[in-house]
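User: Hi! I have a protein structure encoded as tokens and I'd like to know what sequence might fold into it. I'm fairly new to this, so please keep things simple.
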């Protein structure tokens, strides 16, 4: 980011392939493919479709594919089957022509680094706990069924 350098994909330009830069990338046109940079800015006229790995991403344009970033700021369109992984996700709604919207297609958002680990831990513990918890639960119904005989199994 030093000296104000940036890689620019100008409006009306279409780029297909792998794009890697050691300075921020600004997309006003269209990029299809792999993109790696310290930062990515997608303007309202811009579109990025592919696999992206950046430190910081700000998008007012169109996103599709798989995006990995530390900080993500969205205020554009996210297409179907898009995956966004971020440590921090901010959705900004700014009025354009009197209306505010962010459009999400069918997509997957992963925010933070601990969430997937917790989900896996729960999945692993859930099958183990109910079987071990059920024998005490089976012993517990007789006191509870005193008020409702219909719950009691037939002799």
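Assistant: Happy to help. Inverse folding works backwards from shape to sequence: for each of the 155 positions I chose a residue that suits the local structure. Here it is:
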């Amino acid at each position: 980011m030093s000296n104000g350098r940036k890689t620019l994909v100008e409006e009306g330009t279409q780029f297909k392939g792998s794009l890697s830069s050691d300075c921020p990338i600004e997309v006003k046109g269209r990029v299809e493919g792999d993109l790696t940079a310290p930062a990515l800015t997608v303007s309202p006229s811009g579109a990025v479709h592919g696999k992206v790995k950046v430190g910081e991403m700000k998008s007012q344009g169109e996103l599709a594919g798989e995006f990995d970033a530390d900080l993500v700021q969205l205020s554009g369109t996210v297409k179907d089957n898009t995956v966004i992984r971020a440590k921090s996700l901010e959705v900004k709604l700014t009025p354009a022509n009197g209306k505010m919207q962010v459009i999400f297609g069918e997509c997957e958002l992963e925010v933070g680094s601990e969430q997937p680990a917790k989900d896996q831990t729960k999945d692993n513990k859930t099958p183990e706990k109910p079987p071990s918890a059920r024998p005490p639960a089976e012993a517990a119904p007789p006191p509870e069924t005193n008020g409702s005989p219909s719950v009691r199994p037939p002799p």
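A useful reference point when you look it over: Helices lie at 115-139, 141-144. Feel free to ask if any position seems puzzling.
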